[in-house]
Amino acid sequence: MKIYVACLAAYNNGVLYGRWIDANQDPYDIWNEVSTMLLASPIEDAEEWAIHDHDGFEGAPISEYECFEEVLQKAALISEHGALAGKLLDHFSDFEEAREALSDRYAGEYECLADFARELTEETAVPIPENVAFYIDYECMARDLEISDVLTVETRCDQVHVFWAH
User: Which domain holds residue 155?
Assistant: First the structure.
């Protein structure tokens, strides 16, 4: 994962100048790379910078002035959990909430939410007689669960991750 840090003095003078920086490193190392980039700026005495682009963050937002500690935290979470973490960071817009959802509220991965509803019913209900099981509408149960009980994150076709709402 990388961030593109631009020199704002150059940018404001119509010059595109900056550097792609590895986001999976200590925040002080990121800052050192930014400082080195600013020292080599085509505009004298450049001091201001902004993150103008990022790559590999799986859809997670990175703001222009995000602190490097937060960039590193997001990069580490995405390195561990992939696209799922990126989508959660985008959904919650809060690192701690996304991390907490992954660690404490994750219910599993399913082909569809109806499969989750079926598993939940089979695990928590008394054995359902075969002649009654045919009439259970798991699609409807899934829609009801999604209204207030669960959050779903689709990372690809036929891959739904389910989280308890709270």
Answer: 105-164
Q: Where does residue 73 fall: left (phi above 0), alpha (psi -120 to 50 degrees), or beta otherwise?
A: alpha
Listing DSSP states for 28-88 in one string gives: HHHHHHHHHHHHT-SSTT---EEEEEEESSTT----TT--HHHHHHHHHHHHHHTHHHHHH
pLDDT of residue 130: 86
Continuous segment of H or E residues that includes residue 113: helix 113-124
Q: In total, how many domains does the chain have?
A: 2
First to last CA, the chain: 31
Reported as a single tens digit per residue, the pLDDT across 78-111 is 999 999 999 999 999 889 999 999 999 999 999 9
Q: State whether 30 and 94 are in the same domain.
A: yes
